[in-house]
Amino acid sequence: MALPNRPGMTVPLPGHLHTHRDQLAELADLGYTDIWSAESDGADAFTPLALAAAWEPRLRLGTAIVPAYTRSPALFAQSVASLADAAPGRFAIGIGSSSNVIVERWNGIAFEQPYQKVRDVVRFLRDALDGEKIAKSYDTFEVDGFRLGIRPEERPKILVAALQEGMLRLAGRESDGAIINWLSAEDVATVSGIVADAGREAGSDEDKEIVCRIFVCPSENADVVRAGARRAIAAYLNVGVYAAFHEWMGRGEALSGMWAKWKEGDRKGALEEIPDQVVDDLIIHGSPAECRAKIQAYFDNGVTTSSLAIMPFDPDLDHWQAIRDLAPTAG
Questions:
Q1: 107 lies in a domain?
Q2: Residue 189 and residue 321 share a domain
Q3: What is the arithmetic mean of pLDDT over 9-32?
Q4: What CATH number corresponds to the domain at position 159?
Q5: Is the pTM for the entire model greater than 0.90?
Q6: In this predicted model, what pLDDT tens digit does every residue of 214-258 receive, in sequence order?
Q7: Which of these, 278, 286, 303, lies nearest to 185 by C-alpha position?
Q8: Rounded CA gap, 47 and 97, in Å?
Q9: How far apart are CA 74 and CA 286, in angstroms?
């Protein structure tokens, strides 16, 4: 049985966390089913979801994503189990390698063996949530005698953030699905197919969830949006893991000029080298109706759950009005 489409929103929302109760309620009223947090340089991934767990029981909660490196194994399991216990049946933990920038430069942790690290954290969490006493050597860490002292009523879904084939196959083989981002609606068909195939090859008859962070700026001021979008694209797609992903997706030639200028230290020139087509592939913009149609294309190509990220590329954009204009109840 195919999974239902779940329209979600990225959190935290604008403003201080303590002010979000009414906004979360309005998200649910507007037809959004999910909220998805992240963890880089803002709020941690768990606190916004813990508040939502208490304030708005209609929303499912997920992390997209928590880096596999930045919590010790036992603490990771405690964080996951605590939120799953606070919101039984409506929490999913998304885990990913993150990037060398976040892990190494910002957190002072060696960014080594990312595939193995994510795989080991997934396996450890499954072991811990089963309630067993763990004395085991994983490839990237060892746990000796830990038993999780909190048992959620319902086991949370575990999802893997994935870009290229190895991580996508890991997501399909050893988790409940994949979290994807920085890709076009057309790219989704390729990556979701790999996840599904890996699940079937592993003997699973359950459909895999595909959660996608989709970057949206509902504005018809295309020149302004593209200018802002180029800065965001350059910031991400010059990171090694994203550059490799887009080369694999066939954008190597289109992005070669940007990569060359960036390596030379010519940041302005790098922005100018990003073609409009790449911007339009990766960032949804236009009228609200056009944006809703483009979001639907992601679902049509294999996404089961969206996490819309409203991008403030147009200074005249009203963030909350954009949330309303893109809502499942709009149009």
A1: yes
A2: yes
A3: 97
A4: 3.20.20.30
A5: yes
A6: 999 999 999 999 999 999 999 999 999 999 999 999 999 999 999
A7: 303
A8: 21
A9: 46
